[in-house]
Design brief:
The complex is a heterodimer. Chain A is α+β, with helices and mostly antiparallel strands. Chain A has 14 helices and 13 strands. Chain A has three domains: 162 residues, Reverse transcriptase/Diguanylate cyclase domain (Alpha-Beta Plaits); 64 residues, MutS, DNA mismatch repair protein, domain I (3-Layer(aba) Sandwich), CATH 3.40.1170.60; 145 residues, Dna Ligase, domain 1 (2-Layer Sandwich), CATH 3.30.1490.100. Chain A has a five-stranded mixed β-sheet. In chain A, strands 9-12-10-11 form a four-stranded antiparallel β-sheet, with helices on one face. Chain A has a three-stranded mixed β-sheet with strand order 3-2-4. The N terminus of chain A is likely disordered. Chain B is mainly β. About 4% of the residues of chain B have low confidence. The chains are: A alpha+beta, B mainly beta. Chains A and B meet through helix 5, helix 14 and strand 13 of A and strand 3 and strand 6 of B.
C-alpha cells in the first residue's frame, strides 16, 4: 500500500485530535447562571432570527438547528426553554480562554472555529492518550466551565469521526480514541457517508446513487473511480479515512482576503437617512477590524437589499464598488466613500432589510509605501487616538456623526446576557 | 521615576509621542549612569493579581454577609477557577442555582459554607442543595475613596 501511495503520504503514524465544545454558546450562558444547568437552553442568531445553538435538553424536545425563532415559540413556551440572543463578546472571550488552555497541552494547534481546535499529539504514548484527553477535558471544565468532547485518530478526518462518536455515545464519557483498524472499520460501517467531513449533501446524494451509503462503502471503492468522479478532493477524503494523513495542521491563520460587516435591520428601513447611519456604522466597524489586523483596503463594495420573503413588497437589490485613492483603513475616508456609494444605489420607495460593506483587495499596512505618505501618517495618528479612546472608555465613545445617535435601525437583541467578561458595568453580581 | 515627554520631530505636529523613562541624575560624558543597568519594567497589576488569566473571572460582591472577611458590598472579587478549594478559602459557591460568596470549612469529613457575619446562616453542603464550588476568591478590590 505504502509503495502504491508514493512519497506524498507520510509513512509515520501521526496522531491528531479534535476538541469540540459541547453546545458552545449555550454552555457559555450556563457558566454565569447555574440555574440553566438542568434546563433546555437555546441561542438565537443575529437579530433574534433563527435558533443557532441548543443544549442537549433542547435537542431532545425536538427543537431543530436553524429553525426560525417564531416557528419554535410554542414548543419553547410549553417546555420553559431559556432563550438568549447571541452575545459574541462573551463567546469570543470564552473561546480564547479555551484555546489558551488547549495550547498548553500541545504546541501544535489549529484553531478551526470558535469552538473547535485540532491538536497534534506526537510523542505521547498510545497507552497514555486516554488519560491525557481526560485531563484536557477536566481542565477545561474546571478552569472555564465548558464541557468538551475529544476525538483522536491518525488523520484529521478520522479525528472528526472519533469526535462525533465521543459526543453521541454517552458511555465514552466525552473521549473516543479511534486508532485500532478493526474498530475504525466498524465505526465507518456505522457512519452515514453524508456525515463524513468534506462530503456535502450534493456529493452524498451522488454517492448513494452509486451504492455508497456508509463511510466504509466509500473507502472500499476503487481510488481511480473516486478520483474520476470526485477529483483530488474526494480521493484525499478517502485516503484520510484509511489513515493516511493528507491534511496537515494550519497553525498560522491565512491572511484575510476580505472583511465584511453586514446586518439585517431590526425593522425595515426606508429613508436614506436611516440607511446612511447604518452604512456609516458598518463602515466604521469594518475599518476598526482592518486596523486590528493591521490591514488596508483599496476597494470597497457596498450592498443593500429588500426582504425577498415579503412577496407583496416591491423588491430591489443593488451593490456598488468603490475605489480608494490609496490603500487605507481610515474610518473617516471609508465612511465618506461608503455614503457617496449609498447615494448612488439608493432608490426611494422600498423597505430595505439588509445592508453591508465588504472590504476587498486587502494588503498588509506596513507593506504599503509611496505617494500620499504624509496623509497616511496623519490619518494613522488620528485613528490611533480614535481606537484608544474607544478602547478605554467603551466602544462608541467617539464615532463619526454620520453613524447617528439613536440607531433606530439597529439589531434586535432582546434577550442578550450581560458581557460578564469584557465590561466592568456587566460584571456578574454575587451574593455576599 | 519622572517621565519626560518627547516628540520625535519638533516641527512635525503629528509625529507619534513617545514616553521615555527619565532619571534625574546628571549625565557625565564618557561615564554611564550607574542606574542604567537597573532599569525595570513598569508594575503590572494583571500579572500580580492574575497568574492564571484563562481561568480567572472578576465578579462584584453584593450584600453584607462577608464583612468579617473584609468583603463589602460593591467590592470586586478576583476568582481563580483553576485552584482547588481548601479549608478556610473564600469561595464562590452555587447553592440552589444562586452564586454566593462564603468561606469553606471542613470538619469531621463534612464541608460547611460559613458566612462572615453572625446575622447570616451557615450551611452544611448536602446533596439536595445541588451545590458546587465555582471558584476560589484570591483577591478583594475595595475602593477607599469615593468621589
Amino acid at each position: 500500500m505504502q509503495q502504491l501511495l508514493g512519497n506524498n503520504y507520510k509513512s509515520k503514524q501521526e496522531i491528531y485530535s479534535l476538541i469540540d465544545c459541547n453546545s458552545f454558546y449555550a454552555s457559555c450562558e450556563r457558566i454565569f447562571n447555574p440555574r440553566l444547568f438542568s434546563k433546555a437552553v437555546v441561542v438565537l442568531s443575529n437579530n433574534d432570527g433563527c435558533i443557532i445553538a441548543r443544549s442537549d435538553e433542547a435537542k431532545k424536545i425536538g427543537i431543530k438547528m436553524g429553525e426560525p425563532y417564531f416557528k419554535a415559540k410554542n414548543i419553547i413556551k410549553k417546555n420553559n426553554v431559556q432563550v438568549f440572543s447571541s452575545n459574541y463578546s462573551l463567546y469570543g472571550d470564552i473561546s480564547q480562554r479555551v484555546m489558551e488552555i488547549l495550547s498548553r497541552f500541545s504546541p501544535e494547534i489549529e484553531i478551526y472555529s470558535i469552538d473547535e481546535a485540532f491538536l497534534k499529539f506526537d510523542g505521547i504514548n498510545k497507552g497514555d492518550l486516554y488519560d491525557y484527553c481526560h485531563n484536557i477535558r477536566q481542565t477545561i471544565k474546571k478552569w472555564v466551565g465548558i464541557p468538551v468532547s475529544i476525538g483522536v485518530g491518525n488523520t484529521k478526518t478520522l479525528a472528526k469521526v472519533a469526535n462525533r462518536i465521543a459526543k453521541n455515545d454517552k458511555k465514552r464519557k466525552g473521549v473516543c480514541i479511534l486508532l485500532d483498524s478493526a474498530e475504525i472499520s466498524l465505526e465507518l460501517a456505522n457512519l452515514d457517508v453524508a456525515e463524513v467531513w468534506g462530503i456535502g449533501k450534493k456529493l452524498s446524494k451522488f454517492l448513494k446513487q452509486n451504492n455508497i451509503c456508509c463511510a466504509n462503502d466509500f473507502v472500499q471503492r476503487d481510488r481511480r473511480w473516486i478520483r474520476q468522479h470526485m477529483g483530488v478532493v474526494g480521493e484525499r477524503i478517502s485516503m484520510e479515512l484509511l489513515g493516511f494523513s493528507c491534511l496537515s495542521l494550519e497553525m498560522i491563520p491565512n491572511l484575510r482576503k476580505n472583511c465584511c460587516v453586514s446586518r439585517s435591520f431590526g425593522s425595515p428601513v426606508e429613508t436614506i437617512n436611516d440607511l446612511s447611519e447604518s452604512v456609516a456604522c458598518y463602515a466604521t466597524r469594518a475599518s476598526e477590524k482592518l486596523r486590528e489586523e493591521e490591514l488596508v483596503t483599496s476597494v470597497m463594495s457596498l450592498f443593500l437589499l429588500t426582504n425577498h420573503f415579503n412577496k407583496n413588497d416591491p423588491q430591489y437589490s443593488n451593490s456598488v464598488k468603490i475605489q480608494f485613492d490609496y490603500p487605507t483603513n481610515d474610518t473617516i475616508i471609508i465612511v465618506k466613500k461608503a455614503l457617496q456609494g449609498l447615494r448612488k444605489i439608493y432608490r426611494p420607495g422600498y423597505r430595505y432589510k439588509k445592508a453591508g460593506v465588504i472590504m476587498l483587495d486587502l494588503s498588509i499596512e506596513s507593506n504599503i509605501q509611496g505617494l500620499f505618505e504624509t496623509d497616511r501618517i496623519k490619518s494613522k495618528s488620528l485613528m490611533k487616538s480614535f481606537d484608544l479612546i474607544n478602547f478605554r472608555y467603551g466602544s462608541d465613545t467617539i464615532c463619526t456623526a454620520a453613524e447617528g445617535v439613536k440607531k433606530l435601525w439597529s439589531m434586535q437583541r432582546q434577550r442578550i446576557s450581560p458581557c460578564y467578561t469584557t465590561r466592568f458595568s456587566d460584571l456578574l453580581k454575587v451574593k455576599s | 521615576m519622572n517621565k519626560l515627554k518627547l516628540t520625535k520631530h519638533q516641527n512635525d505636529p503629528v509625529a507619534e509621542k513617545i514616553e521615555i523613562p527619565m532619571f534625574a541624575d546628571k549625565v557625565s560624558a564618557g561615564f554611564p549612569s550607574p542606574a542604567s543597568d537597573y532599569m525595570e519594567h513598569k508594575l503590572d497589576l494583571n500579572e500580580y493579581l492574575i497568574p492564571h488569566p484563562a481561568a480567572t473571572f472578576i465578579v462584584r460582591a453584593s450584600g453584607t454577609s462577608m464583612l468579617d472577611s473584609n468583603i463589602q458590598s460593591g467590592d470586586l472579587l478576583i476568582v481563580d477557577k483553576s485552584l482547588t478549594p481548601k479549608h478556610n478559602d473564600i469561595v464562590i459557591a452555587s447553592i440552589f442555582g444562586d452564586l454566593t460568596v462564603k468561606k469553606i470549612k471542613k470538619k469531621y469529613k463534612k464541608i460547611f459554607l460559613v458566612s462572615g457575619n453572625s446575622n447570616y446562616p451557615n450551611f452544611e453542603i448536602k446533596e439536595e442543595m445541588e451545590c458546587f464550588l465555582w471558584g476560589v476568591v484570591t483577591y478583594v478590590i475595595h475602593a477607599t475613596v469615593v468621589r
